[in-house]
Amino acid sequence: GQPTRETGPVEVPDLGLMLGSAEQGALVAEVLPGTPAAEAGLRPGDMIVQINGMALDDPARGMEVFRSLGDATQVSVTVERNGQPQVLTLDTSQLQNLGNAGDNRASPEE
Asked: What SS3 state is found at 39?
C-alpha cells in the first residue's frame, strides 16, 4: 500500500463545511449551522464520495469541484453514512451572492 498523504482539514467557507482527509473520500469534519451544508443534511462524520457524480478522492479535490460548480444552483452530494450511500442536495443558489454581492445589480425578480 501507498503511504497516504496527510492533508489537514480543508475549509469550504461558502458551504459552511470543514473537510478532513479519508481513505476513500472527504470526511465531513464540521458543519456550521444555518449554512447550505447544514440545510442539506450533511453531518460531521459523513464521508463525501461524490459531488455531482465526480468521485472525490481527497479534500483538496473537493475544493476544486466546489469551485468549478460555477453557476450551478443545486449540487448533488453523495455521502456514505454508517456504510449506506445517501444523496443529499445542496442549495448553492446563494453562493454566487456571497462571491460577488457588490457587483451584482440584478433585480430581485427574474
From this structure: helix
